[in-house]
């Protein structure tokens, strides 16, 4: 085999997409992005802000009503030039090239591409971009809800996480809970019933359970007694509680959610690693190492630790090596830091069981972005495994087997899709 066989295989494997915040078909059709929102409206603008873009220029960039494409692009051109080589910038360049035929991003090229993005904003193109162009097997969507409306076209392609985010951050959304379950939470028993009812209604239609409460509190977890949880719940119901009350209540709700996830056979996805956006990351909260007490407490659960715990990749490899109930997901990681992700994959292969790694989730909102991020993942995975073959650490046949595993087979095993 030549190295092109490996590249050919990686390009052809129908990839499982374990994580998107894909907007519903109606939003794409009726309120889809213009060319600037499409290219820069995902994580890319976070880098523009880090590079010094001012809030008013950012507001104009993301608001088509604020001016022409040329004027809005000219405002951000300097910040774009500063960020174009970072991972989000690479995703933009891949999208520009593959979807819009743009090799150099200029105001003229963007003006010319606007009719193309408009022509893609219908249900058939939405599905084609993801299923036929990105060559995805299916997408797993975190819409941060408990239930959702089925997709009009190919509902089997669109699967959903059951979000337990609000509970895990120790927030009781009583109005929403009552609308969903008929239960008003007043004490620990009614809270237990509400959580059970949400799972009973929605777990059978979900692919996994999800929480990203590392945005709100530390991932550190403690077993909480009924008395501790009752005390914290009363404080939260009274006035929102302190951060300690919410952490205690969140720990209790998280434990009950994991017990239901086990009961319904659903993996539990946890956001680990860095925050999106700017100026608010508490990096001490996001370490996957905070999870070890929880992982030890629930050996029969299946935990999917997301985003390679960036920048705590080595810590996560150690956890995946030690805990049989942990899987590791490269979702969002290739675009955050492609070199570290590539290095992470090589370290993982030579340290941990290769059945526990997932290659891709874009973590984006629009099908065009899903395509761009999947192209980036395939590109870097190809470079990574080619480097392994060139180093003599894998044969090409072994590299192809690993690609097939981490792009698809591991997900089928973990999410019970076989
Ligand atoms: Zn996400």
From TrEMBL:
InterPro entries: Amidohydro-rel, Metal_Hydrolase. Residues 257-386 form the Amidohydrolase-related domain. GO terms for molecular function: hydrolase activity. This is Unannotated protein. The lineage of its organism: unclassified sequences, metagenomes, ecological metagenomes.
